Amino acid sequence: MTRSGDPRPPAPSGPDPYIGRVGAPAKSRPPTTGDALDLVAGRPVLVLSGAGVSTDSGIPDYRGPGSPARTPMTYQEFVAGEGARRRYWARSHLGWSRMGTARPNPGHQALARLEATGRVGLLVTQNVDGLHEAAGSRRVCALHGRIADVVCLGCRTRSRRSTLARRLADLNPGWAERHADAADRPDGDVDLDDTEDFVVPGCERCGGVLKPDVVFFGENVPGRRVDRCYAAVARLAEVDGAMLVVGSSLTVMSGFRFVRHAARLGAPVVIVNRGSTRADDLATLKLEQGTSEFLGSWARSADVAANGQHEAERAEHRGVPEQDQPAGPPVEVVEERVAR
User: Fold this and answer.
1) Fewer beta carbons below 10 Å: N end or C end of the chain?
2) What is the CATH number of domain 67-101+148-214?
């Protein structure tokens, strides 16, 4: 989803300092899972996730191997006329009912565990499916919004997609059953052309045009989200952190710019994705692997490291009075700057 025109920090003067490659494996052999885990071990990690993370939950991705060709509706098309909006909502109504049955997969669950143990600071996701939150992740920046929310373009009232889904079902009885064979597409879309008789309601408050509260192609990511992500990237340079990209081709600028900025700051960049990405030449390490497989390995290795640390602490403090031991929770190594 493209989002041009958002502010970006200026590029540094002189040669681009893409120095994050320190620690990468020798080019004489392909990188391994162990190499990638070594690069993120012991560091605060900023994670950027894409559609490939949700494929194991049954949601199609955009550009992975075997992905269907697609021509997504732009924001300009959506606001231009009633016919385009009818086509969008007719297809999205079917896709929403199917996406609503998707559940977090082991990759989502692993990231939630890694956040809970302090390995993941901020999770920036390009996905709109809400599965990271459903898995238990709390420090999430949904860069492109969430398909579960709806906004009125007139009065800006926000409401739940589930409420609109019930209204659409009441106004279009039997629609889902008549088009049950429509093929699924990414972001809760389906392959369907017969939409002329679909009825779309207006805002319950003002009668205005309803739009899913997601960033369409041709629409900008809200500036507060962009600022939050840039702040998290800048923090990596201060705490010797790393950036991990999972399941994204980084084709659009909305996510790619953060990877580029991390590389310019000298932070290691690890990319785990099946297929090439726009940032392959910026990566410290690029691993061709499924995201659930890699994230599961990372979570298990983090669990082992944590258990080893606990054993060492118990040995160190054996016989030491409790009041002499450090009190309070561990200090977080990655901070979020929440725009107000």
Assistant:
1) C
2) 3.30.1600
Structure tokens at 118: 């302090």
Q: Please state, in angstroms and rounded to a whole number, the distance separating the CA atoms of residues 105 and 49.
A: 14
Q: How sure is the predictor about 176, in pLDDT bands with cuts at 50, 70 and 90?
A: confident
Give the model's pLDDT for residue 196: 84
Residue type, 112: A
Closest C-alpha among 170, 166, 178 to residue 97? 166
Q: What is the 3-state secondary structure (H, E, C) of 68-83?
A: CCCCCCEHHHHHHCHH
Alpha-carbon span 22 to 188, nearest angstrom: 40
Architecture of domain 1-59+104-144+221-315: 3-Layer(aba) Sandwich (3.40)
- The strand ranges marked E within 119-254 are 120-125, 140-142, 145-152, 158-160, 184-185, 189-190, 210-214, 242-246
Burial class (CB in 10 A: 0-12, 13-18, 19+), 293: middle
Supply the pLDDT for residue 337: 36
CA distance 264 to 95: 39
Rounded to two decimals, the pTM is 0.80
Lowest mean pLDDT among 86-100, 123-137, 171-185, 227-241: 171-185
Is there a contact between 159 and 176 (Cβ–Cβ < 8 Å)?
A: no
Q: Domain residues of the chain, as ranges? A: 1-59+104-144+221-315, 67-101+148-214
